[in-house]
UniProtKB/TrEMBL annotation:
This is Serine/threonine-protein kinase RsbT-like protein. The keyword Lipid biosynthesis does not apply. It comes from the Bacteria. Residues 157-333 form the PPM-type phosphatase domain. Pfam families: HATPase_c_2, SpoIIE.
């Protein structure tokens, strides 16, 4: 489900809860776990109506190493939460909700994060894992939003681990792509990119993109960026073709990576590639042109300290252009490696 769900009426809470149940059941979550997920979504949506009057909810499945994950991002532009410590205690909740409070929402989630202040409103991000797993050095999340007039998203992303995350030479690979245009043909091209990516474990990002380009030559084509992060979180290899933006943000610096014009499936000579070092706390962001250009991320230290999913959710909510598909993936390097 890759459209924002509006939150402005009590009936919208039921819509969010129903969508959450459908996603959880399709992903293979047990019935009791599905109901816990529905409770968290319902509580988050109710809080928006109670305190901010209106907001938005994004629910979708994310790829994971141990199996699919569910992501919930709820955003509003309300007054923020002054008593966040109180609201994190079980039993403190909005009137008319389950009475759980943010603390219980945190307990029922595999990952929970919240960002709130008077100027920017509140973002709540929860992740639910079918089989809990997290690489030691990185936190990874990504979100998709479909063109408002389409039913299928022409953007896509995926991730995989090569060898064990604790083995020497192991790494995490991630690709983000944008099928040219939007609609069914763009979605078909993006799906072909991910299928080819899944068959190329262990190749360098540049070699993978070159081979993918050959594999999708009979499609509309796509632009893509691929990164490989070493298991210790210290190094990143990168390759790109077309206008996928890749950024490394850290306190005091926002570095934008170069790319090569063209698109996969279009006879590109070779992708642009590079390798850079990473530091504890670095954030690597990939996004399609369905989002506004992200600038000066290093000037947002409070946001860069949050989880990968919350960063992705806030940036998606604030920068979605609304006239194309959009995708964004975030790789957060642990503060201590």
């Amino acid at each position: 489900m890759t459209h924002w769900l509006p939150l402005s009426d009590p009936s919208d809470i039921s819509v969010c809860r129903r969508n959450a149940r459908q996603l959880a059941q399709a992903a293979g979550f047990s019935r009791p776990r599905t109901e816990e997920i529905a409770i968290v979504v319902s509580e988050a949506a109710t809080n928006v109506l109670r305190y901010a009057k209106r907001g938005r909810c994004l629910l979708q499945q994310m790829p994971g190493i141990g199996g699919p994950r569910l992501a919930m991002v709820v955003v509003d532009q309300g007054p923020g939460i002054d008593t966040l410590d109180k609201m994190m205690r079980d039993g403190s909740s909005s009137e008319g909700s389950a009475g759980l409070g943010l603390g219980a929402m945190q307990r029922l989630s595999d990952q929970f994060d919240i960002y709130s202040n008077r100027d920017e409103g509140t973002v709540v991000a929860c992740e639910f894992q079918l089989r809990p797993y997290r690489p030691a050095a990185v936190d990874v999340a990504g979100l998709l939003v479909t063109h408002p007039g389409e039913t299928r998203c022409g953007d896509a992303w995926d991730m995989t681990c090569v060898a064990s995350n604790t083995a020497s030479g192991g790494r995490l690979d991630l690709i983000l792509c944008d099928g040219l245009g939007h609609g069914h043909r763009a979605a078909d091209a993006a799906e072909r990119v991910l299928k080819a990516f899944g068959q190329m474990r262990g190749r360098t990002p540049a070699a993978a993109l070159a081979d993918i380009s050959d594999d999708i030559a009979d499609t509309r084509g796509a632009v893509a960026a691929c990164v490989a992060v070493a298991s210790d979180g210290r190094r990143l290899s990168y390759a790109s073709v077309g206008n996928i933006a890749t950024i490394r943000a850290r306190l005091g610096e926002t570095k934008r990576f170069a790319t090569r014009d063209g698109h996969l499936g279009g006879g590109v000579r070779s992708p642009f590639s590079d390798e850079i070092s990473l530091q504890p706390g670095d954030t690597v962001i990939l996004h399609s042109d369905g989002l506004l250009t992200l600038r000066d991320l290093h000037e947002k230290p409070a946001l860069l300290m949050r989880s990968a999913l919350l960063i992705a959710g806030k940036l998606m909510a604030e920068n979605f252009r609304g006239r194309d598909d959009a995708s964004l993936a975030v790789i957060k390097i642990a503060k201590e490696i």
